[in-house]
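Narrative progress, year one. The postdoctoral researcher (J.K.) led the effort to move from monomer predictions toward full complexes, under supervision of the PI. The following entry was the first complex the group processed end to end, covering 759 residues in total.
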Amino acid sequence: MQATDRTRLRTQAVRRVSIVTTASSDTPTKKILMMGGTRFIGVYLARLLVKAGHEVTLFTRGKTPVTQKIASETDQEYAEYSSKVKHIQGDRQDFDGMKSKIASAGFEIVYDINGREAVEVEPIIDAIPSLKQYIYCSSAGVYLKSDLLPHFEVDATDPKSRHKGKLDTEALLQSKGVPWTSIRPVYIYGPLNYNPVEEWFFHRLKAGRPIPIPNSGLQITQLGHVKDLADAFVRVLDNPTAFGQVYNISGAKYVTFAGIARACAKAGGFPTPELVHYNPKDFDFGKKKSFPLRDQHFFTSIEKAKNDLGWSPKYGLVDGLTDSYNLDFGLGTFRKAADFSTDDMILEKLGIKVAVPA
Amino acid sequence: MALSLQFPVSTPRQASLEISKLTPGCLASSFSLRSPSTSSLHSLGTSSGIATAVKKSSRRWRAAKTVAMAAAANEVSNRKVLIVNTNSGGHAVIGFWLAKDLVAAGHEVTVMTVGEESSDKMKKPPFSRFSELRDLGVSTVWGDPKDVGAAVGGKSFHAVLDNNGKDLDAVKPVVDWAKSQGVEQFLFISSAGIYKTSDEPPHVEGDPVKVDAGHVGVEDYISKSAFKFWSSFRPQYMTGSGNNKDCEEWFFDRIVRDKPVPIPSPGIQVTNIAHVSDLSSMITLAIGKPSASNATIFNAVSDHAVTFDGLVRLCARAAAKEAKIVHYDAKALGIDARKAFPFRNMHFYAEPRAAKEKLGWTSSTNLSEALKERYEEYIKIGRDKKDIKFEIDDTILSKVG
């Protein structure tokens, strides 16, 4: 066989493989409406979708700038993204107003990143006759607490949970007849996280303070990197396997509370932290949270997403926390200022003095 | 011929996944199930309502699924398999269930138990029930791992499973004999206890192990012995009829006598209790799919973790009784937790990811159901009436106050 023939065949083979790997690159361009998209998950997801060639419109109140350059992108990448992504300004709680703004754009896909209650979702579906898929960001918080873990998608959900609205929304989606997919993340982390998960630990590590851990620190939970989550959201796009399905999306491994503290220390290049264990029942913290995570085992199996979507998390815990540190906290940025008031209550009661660095 | 399989599934999606794994002609026309108290699956006929059929008895469900799984997409059939089985301890029951599953999957089985048939150890389960194996056509022999050939009388085998040794001293003779006999596939029951402790559960295949552990040396030796196929299985704890070592019985002993259940603090430590049929179905699949299972380590466990406190609750529910949990700090009270409690006092949780990914295996352990069955058996043999001394419990409870 001639060398040129061999090269041609190899190139064709490579092209065939690359077409097969990502759903979005062999799907025709979609008109996508994203509810949210300016704070955390949507920041990464919208970029992936625009890069894949889709027409993306963010629906937000406009309180946060529609686009902002993020630490991990070049000026050119940001220019490309910000010139392509569209925006509709509005309040999703104003159902009639919202409907009139989104009705005639011919949207085919909705990514609902910030929906909380079913009543917020129904008007969107009703307003868009061309809707081909509703993709919803739910929460693993809907699972009923269990002695047997991890939570699988088929497990019982808790109608009394704080995330009841997410459950109601999933039920609504099921009832409306439009193809839908629901994603249930556990704890999300990564640069720009507005929920003080890793940030809470980084503040204490930076201050050289001991880290107060409720009870034994053996509680097992699961952190998932926001970029892995965004990848999963892309893979369900226009994917018939995902129609009518819920997926747990989080990290490949679980982690203990004590383990998170140690992983954050590794990520930021801090020495192994001193952990201080306390019984939350011995304190009255008022409205303040003394620890960012719920005091129980809380983790899910992600095997359904792996099997159905060919997705798997790219970030291990320490790698992912390092990414978050390098692109956010380590650059001096964070969402919530350090508040050690509950820490001080705990340390005082336990008779532990904090050595304040000079 | 169009073939659809009647067996219980829990969801329509699961049903379609199971069906898609079957190919016409790969299924034998009749199977008989192991336990006399379950119905036999004489022929695989057509089924309507697959999506709606749901198991009533977990035994029937497990058996049917085992059979279906063993038959689905096998690479080989009618293998001659030798199980070298320990004569005591938690792993003894594996060989008993595995022999039955292998027969159901169409293989020819010999079980060589270490030691002598006349030994007192043979009066305990599962050995006391070996007539059940012989009724199925399993050959049961006794012998010394240092001279397997003498015990099996010159028989040849495609596959040999060592379910006996914990170190190279015990297993090397078996490995070397198998190699000399041209055995194609060597399988080993190792232990999930060899994983190094970690902040990030679960233990998954490939995670670092304690290099000095005996089982590690064995796995290493097997992998380098140039068998055509080899696999290693790392179990945790098992429950199931015929078990040789107490597992859930420790909990029943206390619950049925209305005694408090002392649990090492904080009680949220997680462990993995599999029904032994999860292991036997996994190994059967590995024997039926030697290429798929080759050069692979498998965590031989269920796919759920249970906490210590949770296990007490499940056992109490199985016994239809209330249980009182008393937490104690073993270290502070100077209690040796290894003597006081049947499981490792720490998170000890592995997941069976390799089996799912490489063999298409699924777990069928339903711990609630399994414990109910075990409780029925516990009562049936009159163990609730047995006079048991709770010396360590009493020490703990007096110290806790």
